[in-house]
Design a protein that fits this description.
The protein is α+β, with helices and mostly antiparallel strands. It has one domain (21-119). 16% of the residues lie in helices and 45% in strands. It has two helices and six strands; from the N terminus they run αββββββα. It has a six-stranded mixed sheet, with no helix packed on it.
């Protein structure tokens, strides 16, 4: 009887502690710039990329499509993104990972301070 109660209590703890099937391989907090970058090359989700600064990094980088992210030009965002492994069997030119929006911390109307080599390729002017 004690064993059954122990198993039940353990399962109950998992439910209330927030156990989930979330199989994210990485989690990123980041700033998304108020404009996007036009590379001129067309890929799976187009040629326009987000300009982001991942927390802990000191430079802006380019990121592709983020599932669930409803971007509006002119706003700088603070968001959390989760990276997931995806099955690419039978699919050519598909990334083995995809990024999904987990949380929007803030959305502020402002012009991001970007390096010149990125600002000159701004897509949303």
């Amino acid at each position: 009887m004690k064993r059954i109660l122990f198993v039940f209590a353990a399962l109950l703890c998992c439910v209330f502690a927030g156990c989930s099937d979330d199989k994210a391989i990485e989690v990123y907090d980041m700033t998304v710039a108020s404009t996007r970058y036009d590379s001129g090359f067309v890929w799976e989700h187009g040629s326009v990329y987000y300009i982001v600064k991942v927390d802990g990094e000191d430079r802006w980088t380019l990121w592709g499509y983020i599932h669930g992210f409803d971007y509006e030009p002119g706003y700088e965002y603070r968001i959390r993104v989760k990276e997931y492994e995806v099955d690419t069997e039978g699919m050519m030119d598909r990334s083995p990972v995809e990024y999904r929006l987990d949380k929007v911390y803030s959305k502020e109307l402002k012009t991001s301070d970007l390096p010149d080599h990125m600002a000159e390729h701004a897509y949303d002017r």
